[in-house]
């Protein structure tokens, strides 16, 4: 039940992993808080991503909060890679355990927020025509919550149902016996395609860029293993918060060039059989040396040719971009799916999609009749979710204007940006975010923000704001590290190249989560160096 109070100490956007923990921490500090959530329940991306096959590609024992030892002891994961439903159940359990729902306003969207200089408050406008006032305005929108449905001509005339993987309905979608078209084969498409194929009358996959994917080889955890992780809670927490990746994945400190080609292939083979991200951890120069990168790419292409029986289809599935420069994907029977008789692969790079028709889809050379269309076409990442809200700081300048539509993003630590006092971003642009384990990154940001607010309160201060110099230096540092890697060489959502007209920029901090955390702590220990406190 939502009360009539319109003024809060803090307003938080979103009730996913970020918003839930932020709410909990700020309530512990005695603040009045309101979370605004578009969905009708908690979960964030795990609320929306209910498509068939949706699961996480981070090990479940690391894909959770560690702020409460009791919570860690109470919750039991069932398998290495948790399914969407299990993660959603977990977040519901957290919301109940910490009694979070009473401060969350569901089915409501924040449309705009303006900083009001006269009273040092944020005025937050909601889509129901009301508004809230708050001293602190905190974004928990996530990096991948703005779904991208490409602007295909004719979609409005399509007679069948269409869905985006990131906005999937709660009711089961019935594919049985139907002609289904899936556009896109990133992590979402690769997970959904094998499941949809099992049910569909016929499935046509429209692929623009072939992808590297690795078998997940998911398995159920044994009760002994679970007990061991619970007994080792402190160690799990340490790994999540002190390692470079936040998830226990350890990259072997050995160059692929220091071993013979035979040994390299054997190492890849062993990792392939192990499944999961073992392959990405085989050598320390996989993502920095193009020759090494090509060797793993060639290894995976060999696997595709082995698995896929039709040589023409296999050929279309062979990726040729630098491995890992798009997010590596884990799958369960993805390449095998193309051996099914009810599955067709269409290469829309050589035969582009021209329009959606009332009865299906037309490429330059063919017409496909479809009953259902699935868009697994990804997200306007990093800045997309923030730009969907008209956020305005000092002098009425919007975030979009300040960042020139994404061409000139400048943040300090990915947490704050100059001209936007008391505005915090959890896992914002230029923080490690999606290239480390998200729950680790989220807990670290939330703790840092909560500590900062506690510091302001203890010192009778009202405002914290990054200086332009500090953010300029941080952004430069981020870009310099990114330029040393292969990531910037490929078109992907990491670089913004997946969105038509979006300026290209790499907005993820790559200096390592351990180093990043140390840097954040140093800054707070020096009285929030690089911020103006007043
Ligand atoms: O999106 P994507 P996603 N015409 O951008 C294609 C996380 N995630 O939702 O490669 C035709 O990767 C596009 O083609 P191309 C994870 O971080 C995690 O799959 O641009 N095709 C591509 O094939 C992931 O990286 C999990 O040429 C078009 C696909 O659509 C991120 O979310 C599960 C097109 C989009 O792939 C995004 O993954 C799911 C067009 N106009 C997601 N536009 C876990 O396991 C786009 N495409 C935790």
From TrEMBL:
The keyword Isomerase is annotated on this UniProt entry: no
GO MF annotation list: flavin adenine dinucleotide binding; N,N-dimethylaniline monooxygenase activity; NADP binding
KW Protein biosynthesis (keyword) present: no
Signal sequence, start to end: none
Top-level taxonomic group: Bacteria
Keyword terms: FAD, Flavoprotein, Monooxygenase, NADP, Oxidoreductase
Annotated Pfam families: FMO-like (PF00743)
Cofactor annotation: FAD
Membership in a protein family: Belongs to the FAD-binding monooxygenase family.
Name of the featured protein: Catio diffusion facilitator CzcD-associated flavoprotein CzcO
Organism: Ureibacillus acetophenoni
The organism's taxonomic lineage, starting at the top: Bacteria, Bacillati, Bacillota, Bacilli, Bacillales
């Amino acid at each position: 039940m939502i009360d009539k109070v319109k003024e809060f100490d803090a307003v938080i956007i979103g009730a996913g992993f970020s918003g839930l923990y932020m709410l909990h921490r700020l309530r512990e500090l005695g603040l009045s808080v309101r979370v605004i959530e578009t969905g009708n329940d908690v979960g964030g991306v795990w609320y929306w991503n209910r498509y068939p096959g949706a699961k996480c590609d981070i090990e479940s024992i690391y894909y959770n909060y560690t702020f409460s030892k009791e919570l860690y002891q109470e919750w039991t994961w069932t398998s290495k890679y948790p399914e969407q439903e299990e993660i959603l159940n977990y977040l519901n359990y957290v919301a109940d355990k910490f009694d979070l729902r009473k401060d969350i306003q569901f089915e409501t969207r924040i449309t705009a927020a303006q900083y009001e200089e006269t009273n040092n408050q944020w005025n937050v406008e909601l889509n129901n025509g009301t508004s809230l006032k708050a001293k602190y305005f905190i974004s928990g929108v996530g990096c991948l919550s703005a779904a991208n449905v490409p602007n295909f001509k004719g979609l409005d005339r399509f007679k069948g149902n269409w869905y985006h993987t990131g906005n999937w309905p709660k009711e089961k979608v019935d594919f049985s016996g139907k002609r289904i078209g899936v556009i896109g084969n990133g992590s979402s498409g690769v997970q959904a395609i094998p499941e949809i194929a099992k049910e569909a009358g016929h499935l046509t996959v429209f692929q623009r860029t072939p992808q590297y994917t690795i078998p997940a080889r998911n398995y159920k955890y044994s009760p002994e293993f679970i007990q061991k992780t619970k007994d080792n809670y402190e160690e799990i927490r340490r790994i999540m918060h002190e390692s470079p990746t936040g998830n226990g994945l350890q990259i072997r400190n050995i160059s692929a060039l220091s071993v013979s080609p035979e040994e390299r292939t054997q190492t890849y083979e062993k990792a392939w059989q192990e499944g999961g991200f073992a392959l990405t951890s085989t050598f320390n120069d996989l993502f920095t040396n193009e020759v090494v990168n090509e060797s793993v790419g060639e290894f995976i292409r060999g696997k595709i040719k082995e698995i896929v029986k039709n040589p023409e289809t296999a050929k279309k599935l062979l990726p040729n971009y630098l491995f890992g420069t798009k997010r590596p994907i884990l799958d369960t029977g993805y390449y095998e799916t193309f051996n099914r008789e009810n599955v067709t692969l269409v290469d829309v790079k050589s035969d582009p999609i021209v329009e959606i028709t009332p009865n299906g889809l037309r490429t330059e050379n063919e017409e496909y009749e479809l009953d259902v269309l699935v868009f697994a076409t990804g997200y306007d990442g990093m800045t997309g979710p923030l730009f969907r809200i008209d956020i305005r700081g000092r002098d009425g300048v919007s975030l979009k204007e300040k960042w020139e539509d994404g061409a000139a993003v400048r943040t300090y630590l990915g947490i704050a940006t100059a001209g936007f006092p008391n505005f915090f971003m959890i896992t914002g642009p230029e923080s490690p975010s999606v290239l480390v384990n998200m729950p680790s990154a989220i807990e670290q940001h939330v703790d840092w923000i909560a500590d900062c607010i506690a510091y302001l309160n203890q010192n009778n201060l009202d405002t914290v704001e990054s200086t332009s110099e500090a953010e300029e230096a941080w952004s430069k540092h981020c870009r310099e590290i990114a330029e040393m890697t292969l990531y910037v060489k490929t078109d992907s959502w990491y670089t913004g190249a997946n969105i038509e007209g979006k300026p290209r920029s790499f907005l993820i901090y790559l200096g390592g989560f351990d180093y990043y955390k140390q840097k954040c702590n140093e800054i707070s220990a020096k009285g929030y160096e690089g911020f103006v406190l007043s």
